[in-house]
Write a structure and sequence with these properties.
With 383 residues, the protein is α/β, with parallel strands linked by helices. 34% of the residues lie in helices and 16% in strands.
């Protein structure tokens, strides 16, 4: 890497293996930054894939949730406060925390951002290259119509103030990458910056290589997978299954569990809950499903790709990431409507779709493809 010699890591920093799988950074000090680290989630898995490319990098997050096994992850001072239990309370503090994270300085800083992680600054922009992989500009900040957590009229002024902070504190970022064309457009609209598109990695090989017992299952239920939070629209998923007259399995976890269970009790079809299933169990659920229901405007959506890797088609909303992950009429069926009857009607067309074609499409979103594209982006950005 051109420029000044690598910055010395601070005494007491966590020791890690030397080297980088990106040759341009073999002699550089690298920091990897993620928002908060939850037990499950697509952004956390993306961060793990990025970390595999930079085994010697220091890894930072605001905090990690209870039960997260990431021993090399260094937490901010927020992790030692009760605020970590409330993202809403922590949100206004995040830009300040990212600016006071550590006194260490690095040659290259790569953030994995869906809130304020892209505002982290671990060195002056003259000597430190700041790169950011964006899962989405914070939806509750920039697009509350999509994510109702920021939609209250009482939050209008605070939201505008934080938008200004978001813009001012990210001027030092040299390069952006977006996980989809949807997010690329939002980065251009909200931050007035360009970004390349690098689709996130999905364990398509793992999900495709299911045991024979999983492959032999009868595909006799509809499936919903993800975090049980309002904008994921699991209430609509229940309504779609009821309109289709087909059993439903809901896999995941989240604060909406009690509400969803009440909806399930009133539904006219059997609804089964799978709370925080293992990867093996999730793979089996995908293989046993007639279709994945995904009626949500998502930024990208790793879950639909996992389902397709199992030959399971996707029934969803013709918006956002599904326009990139699903080939309408070939690997899934999409509609513009949020009327459950319109989604339910798609179940009558499922026999039109070939499982082998569904699987072949999913293979294009592999971890290997991501690693190649991400490494090339970083190498070009620091050249």
């Amino acid at each position: 890497m051109s420029g000044p010699p690598p910055h010395a890591a601070a005494t007491g920093a966590t020791a890690e293996p030397a080297g980088s799988t990106v040759p341009a950074l073999d002699d550089a000090s690298v920091a990897l930054v993620h928002e908060w680290f939850g037990v499950t989630g697509g952004s956390e898995q993306v961060f793990r894939n990025i970390a595999e490319l930079f085994p010697a990098a220091q890894r930072f997050a605001l905090w990690k949730d209870d039960g997260v096994d990431e021993p090399l992850l260094r937490e901010s001072w927020l992790a030692r406060t009760p605020i970590r239990r409330s993202k809403a309370l922590a949100l206004p503090l995040m830009p300040v925390v990212w600016r006071t994270l550590t006194r260490e300085r690095f040659d290259v800083v790569i953030s994995s951002s869906h809130a304020f992680a892209h505002t982290v600054r671990l060195g002056p922009p003259e000597t430190t290259r700041h790169l950011s992989y964006v899962h989405a500009p914070a939806r509750y900040l920039w697009n509350p119509a999509t994510d109702g957590r920021g939609a209250s009229p009482l939050l209008t002024l605070p939201r505008r103030a934080l938008q200004g902070v978001d813009l001012r504190f990210s001027r030092h970022v040299h390069r952006y990458a977006a996980n989809s064309r949807e997010v690329q457009a939002r980065i251009r609209r909200y931050w007035r910056r360009d970004a390349v598109v690098i689709n996130p990695p999905v364990r398509v090989d793992y999900f495709a290589a299911a045991p024979a017992a999983d492959r032999a299952q009868a595909r006799d239920y509809l499936l919903g997978v993800g975090r049980w939070i309002p904008y994921k629209r699991f209430d609509l998923i229940v309504a779609i299954a009821e309109a289709a007259g087909m059993p439903l399995v809901i896999a995941g976890s989240g604060p909406e569990e009690a509400n969803l269970r009440r909806l399930a009790e009133r539904a006219g079809v059997p609804v089964t809950f799978e709370v925080t299933p293992s990867q093996e169990r999730l793979r089996r659920l995908y293989w046993g499903a007639r279709a994945l229901l995904f009626p949500v405007h998502e930024d990208f959506g790793i879950v639909p790709v996992e389902a397709q890797a199992c030959g399971t088609p996707v029934l969803g909303l013709r918006r956002g990431g599904l326009l990139e992950t699903v080939v309408d009429g070939e690997t899934g069926l999409l509609v513009d409507s949020t009327d459950p009857r319109d989604h339910a009607a798609l179940t009558r067309r499922l026999d039109e779709l070939r499982p082998d074609r569904v699987q072949a499409h999913a293979a294009t979103f592999s971890e290997a493809s991501f690693a190649t594209a991400f490494a090339a982006w970083v190498a070009e950005a620091v050249a």
